Amino acid sequence: MNKSIHRIAVALALCVAATGLASCGSGSSSDTLTIEADYDHDEFAGTLFGFFPNSFTVKPGSTVRFHQTWTGAAHTVTLGTRVTELAAPGRDAVTKIYKTGVVDEEPPGLEPFFENLPFFFGREGVNQTAAQPCSALTVKDLPTDGKPCKDKTLAPFTGRETYYNSGFIPFEGPRGNTFDLDIADDAKPGTYLYYCNLHGLPMGGDITITTDGDTSSQSEVNRQGKKEADRMAKPLLEVYRKEKAGRSEMKGNLAGSGDKTTAQIYGAANEFTPRTIEAKVGEKVTWTFISLHSISFNVPKYAPIFTVKKDGTVVSSELVYDPAGGWPGRTPPVSENEDGPPGVGDTPVSIDAGNFDGGGGLKSSGAEWATGDTYSVTFTKAGTYPYACLIHPGMIGKVVVK
């Protein structure tokens, strides 16, 4: 995996936190169970890399509807007999994450999981085997060259498939933010592990198919999902509240949220704090980064992180990550060891973008930043300047210049 692709993967894997259910499945039939993929908190913009709840039981002939709360992160729903076999050594660790919200060291015994399953990012960029829908009955049917699977139709899941993958769940289009996993009428009873092949095993869980046992009700799923999300969001919310009150480790205008106490939480609050900055004409405004975000003005209505071409190919957007409009990015570029809480990584850098009067189209710092880096802009004209992070759609703010 090259450095740029690694940075994108890290950016997407380090953002996470939330609480209320975005979709309670009230419009679903009795044979459709809605599971939340990711969350958005009602007190801050954030993401939580999880399925809520992560464990549930259904019967053959039913449908599991994975509803994606769009927070800027891309997800898949990936399962199959091969996944269950190779992911089994990490199942206890995943259960612990949903109970505590903390990602500890990688559990032992997962080398075959990483070596024998396709993941969203490959050496040449987006791995189409993992990014596009795929149904493979045998290991031989699963491509090893990063190309799409031959069978992308996704017939109902029988429990006999070696690999069964939703592919990238897009924000837009007919499949926007939804993946329906249809369980075949003759599905083999058993428990199947599943996960997101971009964010890895920590964003995973298990589906039990039963013909004679109790199944999960939507109300039970809603209660359990909210409980798990609230638990994972709690430490992130505590730090965000400290930042809003000016009592956190990082001072001043913040682009991002978190500190040493949230370094191992599988999530983040994606916020500019404060959301509104007041300045005078000619005054320099400086932000301090916490993890990977961009400071971007005159942003387009929607800047997708990934897009799906007409032929199904999934591609990443450099617009989101690269500096734009003549504004400088980080110099020197970030090194591989710079992600983490304040104090971790190389020496922070300070970059000055110079004067800005609100014109000139998209102006962006790019997103290749490390915690502790600072970025400055001098506003030369009175007005209100909305800005955003291009990676995280809910991460917005404004500078009011008088």
Can you walk me through this structure?
With 402 residues, the protein is α+β, with helices and mostly antiparallel strands. The chain folds into two domains: 3-232, Immunoglobulin-like; 235-401, Cupredoxins -  blue copper proteins (Immunoglobulin-like, Sandwich), CATH 2.60.40.420. Helices cover 17% and strands 27% of the residues. It has seven helices and 26 strands. It has helices at 3-13, 81-87, 91-100, 111-116, 128-131, 218-244, 318-321, and strands spanning 32-37, 46-48, 51-52, 55-58, 63-68, 78-79, 121-122, 125-126, 134-136, 163-165, 178-182, 190-196, 200-209, 253-255, 267-269, 272-273, 276-279, 284-289, 296-297, 306-308, 314-316, 350-356, 363-364, 374-379, 383-388, 396-401. Helix 3 (91-100) packs across helix 6 (218-244). The model is unreliable at 1-29 and 338-344 (pLDDT under 50).
Q: What's the name of the CATH homologous superfamily of the largest domain?
A: Cupredoxins -  blue copper proteins
Helicity level: 10-25%
Task: Briefly note the structural class of the backbone.
Answer: alpha+beta
The CATH architecture of the largest domain is Sandwich
Secondary structure tally: strands: 26
Terminal Cα span: 47 Å
Average predicted local confidence, pLDDT? 87
The best one-word shape is elongated
CA-based gyration radius: 22 Å
